[in-house]
Amino acid sequence: MSERPLRLGWWLSSEEHDPRRLVDHAVLAEASGFPTAMISDHLQPWVLGQGHAGHVWTTIGAIAHATDGIEVGTGVTAMVHRSHPIDVAHAAATAAVLLDERFFLGVGTGERLNEQPFGQRWPRGGERRQILQEAIGVIRSLWAGGNVNHRGDWWNVEHMRLMDRPAAPPSIFVAASGKRSSALAGELGDGMIGVEADATLVDAYRGAGGEGRCLAQLHVSIADTMDDAVDNAWEWWPNGAVAPALLSELARPQHFEAAAETIRRDAIHSTVVCAVDAQPIVAAVDRFVGAGFDTVYLHQIGPDQQRLADLARQELIPHYQPRT
């Protein structure tokens, strides 16, 4: 169990919402009392029905202009084919300046869905961890402010100095789905991002030297009835029922749609908390707390984001406020 007090965060789903609505949702999250938000970084939606995949860094710039205090981070940015560490270091430093240093960079090993359009070989998981490890080193060197030259196994940099930088470099949180990526987060990151209430991931992170926050994503579908909640989850997030082993390997939104068509509708319960009130959400959050996570980002699936704002303001956030 984490010794830090729990924070509830708001998940901004770039796959489901127009970039203008994402800015509105960030404003809504801040007004509802959420101290932090995380925004997904996708080139394509998981399924075509979601309909969106705006450029995350452009959206973050607009959020910076529209908000005053909420922390914002990427969940998560991958550097395989789509993004070079120079581009990520540059964009993240600018975001941190615009957000007055209330920005963090979430990074991971990526999904084939967002890399396949570049027409290059999709590396195996171990290679992607090596690529990410080298990329983090390059980013930190660029953020330090000197002239950077680097010729590595995966990335090259020649005479690059990053000019606009925040007073302090942003924190880097590393996404983890297994013990090896958790250990990488502990060795190189300032924190870890997970999607399962699995204490072994937190233990691996701590065992590798990680001392920072452990962040989690929790998918929820809140509606008037349970049938409506399940229908909403199945309509907007059918990829939630796809086996985790496939999430990083399928190449096109149509592939996720085809995989979901072979799965029973009730399977959505395995990854989405369908609810009509706060009780099942509190139970799911508490499972993450018990596993050692200290920040849980709530992803309300579908168009009705006001429902999450209302439930959070009235019940969820007060429930987790420290007692005095």
Strand content: 15-25%
The CATH first-level class comes to Alpha Beta
CATH architecture: Alpha-Beta Barrel
Give a count of the beta strands, DSSP E runs of length 2 or more. 12
Order of helices and strands: EHEHEEHEHHEEEHEHEHHHEHEH
Q: What is the CATH topology classification name?
A: TIM Barrel
Mean pLDDT: 96
The Cα radius of gyration reads 19 Å
Task: Choose one word for the global shape.
Answer: globular
- The oligomeric state is single chain
CATH homologous superfamily grouping: Luciferase-like domain
As residue ranges, the low-confidence spans are none
Q: Give me the secondary-structure category.
A: alpha/beta
Terminus-to-terminus distance = 21 Å
Q: Strand order of the main beta sheet, please?
A: 1-2-3-5-8-9-10-12
Number of domains: 1
Individual helix count: 12
Helix content: 40-55%
Major sheet details: 8 strands, parallel, barrel
Summary keywords:
8-stranded parallel β-barrel, 324 residues, alpha/beta, two-stranded antiparallel ribbon, 12 helices, TIM Barrel, globular
Characterization of the model:
With 324 residues, the chain is α/β, with parallel strands linked by helices. The chain has one domain (7-320): TIM Barrel (Alpha-Beta Barrel). The protein contains twelve helices and twelve strands. Helix 1 (19-31) crosses helix 2 (56-66), helix 2 runs parallel beside helix 3 (85-98) and helix 6 packs parallel to helix 7. The radius of gyration is 19 Å and the shape is globular.
